[in-house]
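Form P-L/3: holo structure prediction, ligand zinc ion.
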Amino acid sequence: MKEMLTNKILNGLPDAEFARLMPLLEPVALSAGERLSEAGETAQFIYFPENSVISCHADMQDGESVEVGMVGFEGMTGITSLLGSRPTAHSLNVSVAGSALRVMKDDFEREILRGVGVKQSLLAYAGEYITQISQRSACAVLHRLEQRLAVWLLLLADRLDTDVIQMTHERMAQHLGVRRAGVTVVAAQMQAVGAISYTRGNLRLEDRRTLAAMACECYGALSVGRQQTAYM
Ligand SMILES: [Zn+2]
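OUTPUT (holo model):
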């Protein structure tokens, strides 16, 4: 069973620890736009994406929102609450539909106390996740929208098993915390050079090398590479 999973954390657990966790795992199908938890809530579940992508958003009081972290097959949700910060500061939203496994947070916490492998995986991923959110916050301040959008699309592409995703300019703008008009201009530039194409809300990643050439150095620091090695 473990070998059939794409999720790196579950897949990397020692056999005995995975065997203990397996009966507690529930497969779920996630829909794009689904809200999994609100800021201020204590999350009930920990999600391990397979081919879905979950975004962590900072939602401001005036309604503005920006994605601060992205979780795909390489990771899991709830890392900050598992490390002791509760309730969670951010909301969790499904950015790309697909499958995931979830476990009750309380059950998973018990496994962390019992298993060395679970604990090590959690801490290693916490380090990766902190790197992601800190690099992306630097990127948001220092780099141009064209670069940020290219990085975001590549980070998404790393976590997908398809080149086509349902994604509107409006939603891309929400993830990046910018106005839609700016995304429309940059997406048109990307389309003009053949990096992406667009048909009725379906975005196709046409050429990742071109997209990588438009990105800033931040992608190099953050790629998780299910598909990255094939393109870079
Ligand atoms: Zn950057």
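COMMENT: The pocket of zinc ion is lined by residues 139, 143, 147, 151, 216, 218 (CB under 6 Å).
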